[in-house]
Amino acid sequence: MQKILLVDDEPAILDVCRRYLEREGYRVDSAVNGFEAVEQWKRGRPDLIVLDLMMPEKDGWTAAEEIRMGDEDVPIIMLTALGQERDRLLGLTLGADDYLTKPFSPRELVLRVKNMLRRTSKYKNEEKQSVTIGSISIDLSTRQVKSGGKIIDMTAKEFDMLWLLASHPSQVFSRSQLLEKVWGYDFSGDGNTVNVHVRRLREKLELNPAEPQYIKTVWGIGYKLEQPL
Predict the structure, then answer these.
(1) Which of 135, 149, 150, 197 lies 20 to 30 Å (CA to CA) from residue 20?
(2) For the segment 176-197, what is each residue's pLDDT rounded down to a tens digit?
(3) Residue positions of the PTM 4-aspartylphosphate (predicted)?
C-alpha cells in the first residue's frame, strides 16, 4: 500500500483529505507542522508528501528543503493560500513537484496524487525488467511467465495485471485503479472485469485457487500480490 504523508495545521483539511485518500486505498500519515513533517518523513519514508506552506514553528518551505537534502526523489505537492508567482517559484525551486492553491477540491488533490505516483512508478519500473515472487517469475521484456519452471500462457491483459501487481508487492490496488492502469481511462467495463481476470490468474498460478497464496483479496478495496508464507 502506498503511503502518503499529509502535512497541514488545519484539522478540517487534514480530516477531509485523509478520508478522500484512504478511500482510494492509500495509507495516510499526518503532521501539523514542519518539525513533525520532517520527523514523519524520516520514520515512515512515504511515497509522496502533501505539504502545506504556511504552518507554525517550521514552515513548509523549510521542511521541503530539509527533506530534499535527504531524499531527492520523493514527490512533494505543496499546498498554500498564497497564489503569487514568487511563492510558487520558491516552492518549486526548493524541490516541490506540484502546487495546489487553497481552497482546493479534495478530488483534485486525489487526481494529482494519482498522476504524480503514476509518473514516479513508471520511472522506477523503467529499469525493472523481471520479478520473482515465490515460484513465479515474470519477464517483462519477453512477457513470459513461469511457475515452478513451467511456462504459463497468459493473455495480454492477464500479463499486464500480473506485472502491475507483482512489481508492486503487497501494495493494495482498488478495482478502479486496476481498470485505469491495465485497461486505461477510456475503458467502459466495471469491477467484474477485474474479478474475472483475477480468477483466471489464480487458476493459472495458484496451487489451490480457492485459497490463494499469491493474489489476495483485500475486502472492500481490491487486490494485492504478496510473497507466500
Answers:
(1) 197
(2) 888 888 887 667 778 789 999 9
(3) 52
